[in-house]
Amino acid sequence: MSMNEKPEKRYTRKQKRLRRFWLGIRPTVVLLVSLVVVFLLARTTVNYVLSKYIEPVDQNDATPIEVTIPASSSASSIARILYGACGYDKDGLISSTAAFKVYVDFVGKANSLKAGTYVLSKNMSIKQIVETICEGNPAKATVKFTIPEGYTIQSIAKVLMEKGLIKNEEDLLSIARTGESFANFAFIADAGATANAASRTYLLEGYLFPDTYEVYADASVDTILIKMLNRFNEVFSEDYIARAQQLGMTMDQVVTLASLIEREAAAPDDFAKVSAVFQNRMKQDMPLQSCASLSYALGVTKYVFNAQEQATESLYNTYQHKGLPVGPVCNPGKAAIEAALYPNEQFLADGYLYFCNQNPKETSALVFAKTYEEHLQNVEKFQQYWG
Question: What single DSSP character describes residue 326?
Fold first, then answer.
């Protein structure tokens, strides 16, 4: 045999049997592997299509949106109406007109869609929207309510009860107390993880953003609260988060400070000044001595608290505990949040440390002082009007 010739490969009987067996089953194995790969690809594709086009546009947005389907509307025209229900520059009730048309054709409902006026929402899937339009359900009744800046959760509960959205105040208060159902909101989870979070009266306090809302008349408490939390999430922008980090503050600290500002200052022009006073006091390790915090702790609203009231043991009481209270004392609006983030620079530089009311019947503006002596003079001048 030449040195360049390759020796013939010899197999034992056992090896030959195994080789014949493998050659026999290999096509089946290849087919099975191919089917598994195709199945996984198909499942991934189906899940992608479901999540992007068939599932709700926004699972957390239950805002009622009224749409009118004219008589003799085709599936294509109805798809366009649903897609543009919020204006074509915003997300509509469906993510894709094509997906809507494919779905109604697939389930055989293209000719069952009925004309009429419907109240739908972005947390409805295409399946739910199609079923509603096919059933010809009349538009559901909705209720509008307004929450002013500075309302507490207890005040919000009263508004919802007056509007007939809850049967009793405890329906809301019990849910707001722990906030367990809303830990999917990062800011609620963070608030719940703070020191002494269990000492808060309501974990959701501070985060139910004051605004005008419209909900279904039969909306659940969770749905209403999610709507308000979503609004807070929209307002507290990335710019706000970046500014808070620049100040070395957490979102919860910003909201807590904003809640004090909202309750202490009635005039928006004073918001940034009050913010500067509080931040100056914290820098000097002085107690904030905020009446707003003590009012929340005691459940009363007063201009002046006596020594016994000031001695109340509560982590909300900033007469007894330095720094911010354990949590927000109301639900602040955008102006108060911005004041917490951007205190009056001149008042910071000048070292203002005190403020008090003037004559509330004549003006909502506060009067400010740099020294305790100046503050006492202001108090002596105006306290006769605080009865």
Answer: S
Kindly give, in sequence order, each residue whose CB lies less than 8 Å from that of residue 122, ignoring residues fewer than 6 positions away.
Answer: 56, 57, 58, 61, 62, 63, 65, 91, 93
Evaluate if residue 2 carries a pLDDT over 50. Answer: no
- Residue whose structure tokens are 């809303």: 182
pLDDT band of 42, cuts 50, 70, 90: low
* pLDDT at residue 49, as a whole number: 52
Q: What ranges do the domains of the chain cover?
A: 65-135, 142-234, 238-385
Read off the pLDDT of each residue in 367-381 and give the average, rounded to a whole number.
Answer: 97
- Residue whose tokens read 């002013």: 148
What six digits make up the tokens of 17? Answer: 């049997």
Question: Is 50 exceeded by the pLDDT of residue 335?
Answer: yes
Q: How many helices (H) and strands (E) does the chain have?
A: 16, 6
Q: Is the dihedral of CA 310, 311, 314, 315 positive or negative?
A: positive
Query: How many degrees, rounded to 5, is the angle at CA 131 between CA 128 and CA 134?
Result: 150
Gyration radius (Cα) of the chain, Å? 32
- Tokens standing for 286? 């002085």
Q: Output the pLDDT for position 46.
A: 47
The tens digit of pLDDT for each residue in 249-296 reads: 999 999 999 999 999 999 999 999 999 999 999 999 999 999 999 999
CATH number of the domain located at residue range(s) 65-135 in this protein: 3.30.1490.480
Q: Does domain 142-234 have CATH number 3.90.930?
A: no
CA atoms within 13 A on the CB side of 99: 21
